[in-house]
Specification:
Residues 8-190 form the Metallo-beta-lactamase domain. The chain is an alpha/beta fold. Helix content is 23%, strand content 26%. The radius of gyration is 16 Å and the shape is globular.
Amino acid sequence: MPQLRWLGHAAVEITLMGKRIVIDPLIKNNPLSPVKLGYFQGVNIVGVTHDHYDHLGDTVEILNMNKNAVLYTTFDLAMYVANQFKIPESQIIPANIGGYVEHEGIRLALTKAVHSSEHSDPSGIIVSDGNRTIYHAGDTGLFKDMELIGETFRPDYVLLPIGGRFTMDPVQAIKSVEMLKPKKAAIPIHFNTWDMIKVDPQIFIKGVKERGYEAILLQPGQSIEL
């Protein structure tokens, strides 16, 4: 069954076409994580938006647990992971911000994000099976090109950071929803993991609904059917 599950912070699991895709899998050092690393046995694709520790997270361990799983991320970050942690080329899908890459029926694309990183530019990730499209914005501030992301990829669901300080805050994330125009719902992520990103997510939920879009507030571990 196609579904989306929030695993706390920016970690999200998406199941499409029987494939398990996990994005930014911070688990061991995630105080909100409802699962342990063993949960990721059988994962097919690991997407990473950028190299900060709370997003690269436990990627290497998950790839080592699943020798048929692949890492999808920006070229320089992919090469860093491959070389630094001895991940074989067969487990790497290097890409960059641009068009779709298809892997076993799952379509993946990287988008612009306004943030910082050491290896490659930060990014957002698009995941689609041709019928459903999910946009994980990664860590980002508000930027006008979100309009282009909305027009180009026409996301059904958007996962948006709202914690402020390092990313958009709830009010800025509301504005991003107006630009992205999700067909189904907006879901907040990257908030309340630590005090530095503590916010009231109801500000986002209320503001999004006032603008005529659906918003879903998940608790860590909760999932929705796509």
